[in-house]
Amino acid sequence: MEKIVFRVIIVAGVCCLSTKHVHIQRSLSWADARKFCQANFINLSPLTSQLEEQVFRDTVGEEGIRGWIGLYWDQVNSSWKWSGGDIFSSWTDIYKDMNSDDKLPANNLPTANNIWWTRNKWISLDGTSTHWFFCLNLTVVQQEKTWEEALEHCNENHSNFTSLLSKTENLLAMNEINKTGINEPVWIGLRYLGDRWLWLNGDPLVYQAWSQGGDQDQLCPVTRRCGALTKNGTWENRDCQEKLPFICA
């Protein structure tokens, strides 16, 4: 709780606090915006698929909101990459409903290597120009609780249990766990209900990170019906009455 209070005090110009994505109404270069997000939240927001962008749009809401996101041109590896995360190559998915003129310019433009998001299109800009920006907001709570108790804590003090919609979000959450020194798994908003696993907040379960060849009980669990993220980035199904740290969004 102290961490959240600290954030509220120091982060002037914040819109949509206590959500998974926070709009910072402060003009910074892309590099300085990333430093700000890393110091006060997790990182610049990743939007690695149409699903993730739709969840993002639903979170930030208003028309006219725009700003830096976490995508940049990695000159060393000659590829677009998400800050703290995975390589990005899904231009076809992102621009499916857009005119070809709205697509990013050629990758060989060295001064246009960071991405500025608007509701209508993504624009590559010189990263030294200053703009508002978006941060991914996840909080690791080290107090150990059952899954239901953790859910109640997240609902009362934050927004919800977190969902992890992509490899990049999963990596960023894993890195945040490792920063705290936690060695045990942490609860996430993943639950087995009826005959399937689902995100409690209603987000579609598309990306999955179950351990390779994992436990057969995960396919049709009897008692271990709650999902947890390990420090290695894999998911495990655990007994919901077990007391573990957890992640809120």
TrEMBL record:
Keywords: Disulfide bond, Receptor. Residues 11-136, 131-249 form the C-type lectin domain. This is Secretory phospholipase A2 receptor-like. It comes from Nothobranchius furzeri (Turquoise killifish). InterPro entries: C-type_lectin-like, C-type_lectin-like/link_sf, C-type_lectin_CS, CTDL_fold. It comes from the Eukaryota.
